[in-house]
Amino acid sequence: MTNTTSKSRRKFVQYAAASVAAGSLGISSTDAAIAATKPDPGPIDPSDNIKVTKLETFVLKNSWVFVKISTDAGIVGWGEMLKDDAKACAAGALEVGDYLIGKDPRPVVNHWQAIHRGAFYRGGPIKTAILSGIDQALWDITGKCYGVPVYKLLGGPTRDKAFVYGTPNDETGVKAMKVGPRATRQAFKYTEGRMFIEEVVERFAALKQQYPGVDIGLDFHGAVQPTTASLLIKALEPLNPWFYEEIVQALNVDVMAELAKKTHIPIATGERIFTKWGFREILEKNAAMILQPDVNYAGGITELRLIAGMAEAYYAPLAPHNPNGPCSLAASLQVAACIPNFMVQERGDREHELLAEPLPPVKDGYRPIPTGPGLGITIDEDKLMDEVGEPREYKTAYDPDDGSVVDW
Prior knowledge:
The longest helix has 23 residues, at 3-25. This protein starts with a helix and ends with a strand. It folds into 2 domains: 52-148, 2-Layer Sandwich (Enolase-like, domain 1), CATH 3.30.390.10; 153-375, Enolase-like C-terminal domain (TIM Barrel, Alpha-Beta Barrel), CATH 3.20.20.120. The protein is 39% helix and 12% strand. α10 (275-284) runs parallel beside α11 (300-312). The protein is an alpha/beta fold. The chain has helices spanning 3-25, 29-37, 86-100, 108-117, 125-146, 150-153, 194-210, 226-235, 253-260, 275-284, 300-312, 326-336, 381-386, and strands at residues 52-59, 65-71, 76-81, 161-165, 176-179, 215-219, 244-245, 267-269, 290-291, 345-346, 366-368, 397-398, 405-406. It has a 5-stranded parallel beta sheet with strand order 5-6-7-8-9, with no helix packed on it. A 3-stranded antiparallel beta sheet has the order 1-2-3.
């Protein structure tokens, strides 16, 4: 039986049953027909067949990368991927179409395993980012098939709203933010001197006075060398930062773990770490107390749920990384709604013009979890297509004094 036939038959039975009930209640047949459509749990029955028919990718001028998966039931799913290698991610995702097209999109975890383990060489930032976007889109489709938000398929809700940080604002009630170690210039020297350290401390102290009652995290962005980071984390301690983020690159976890021992301020990291295997070492070596996986990079919704489970065993909360678009935020909120150890959502107060309808507004510093089916959002495809173009270039940074390459 085709999806269309099955769906039509189900609607007829619903209509007939509602009409019989309507006669005894004095309800018109038109009202009965409307009522018959309301209990429908989703666009298709769980027993109906559905297949992936098309996979498309879109690179935007701001370097965001979207993936759209279509099905023969007319249901589509959307996801996002890593932005730094935008063209590579977009092209690589299309290759996954060779595996995915013709298959039922709903066994999401099985597809995750097949995409990750189907090649001899596994993981890596680009391949895992591709997997992340496709995973989001498959969960989006699956939730729409059953007429429920993704978090309900993953055991939620554990909460009905998510604490967010972004821009402090009386209207939204946002009372948490994050900044870099500000000074006249970036901290790109291998060992910054006393004047630089003192300037960073002075500026952070002024910021604390400007925003009383606001929690402020310090993001080193992995651009500060360990010799300087060790000085900064001690000098800033009296000002009680909310957390220190990416005090060094996560390529050598032992160095991060050693620095973590030198301060009582919580260390956060994770935006450049992917899959459960990457976060395993962070947890085992006590290199960070707050994990910040990116749903566009670390393995999608499927993997963030598993990373959260690992972190829970270490009493570590998740504060998902999110500098990206609406699918990234919506998918992160779905994770927030189905895990017990969610802490805060980065840029959770950001609004997105690419949506057909806005997200539930932030109030008292919290964003309500979207309750619509799938990711709970609808992409405005016309607006998205207007933004498609050559992605923004990420340029190499150099020390202006000696011309050497530096982290940014």
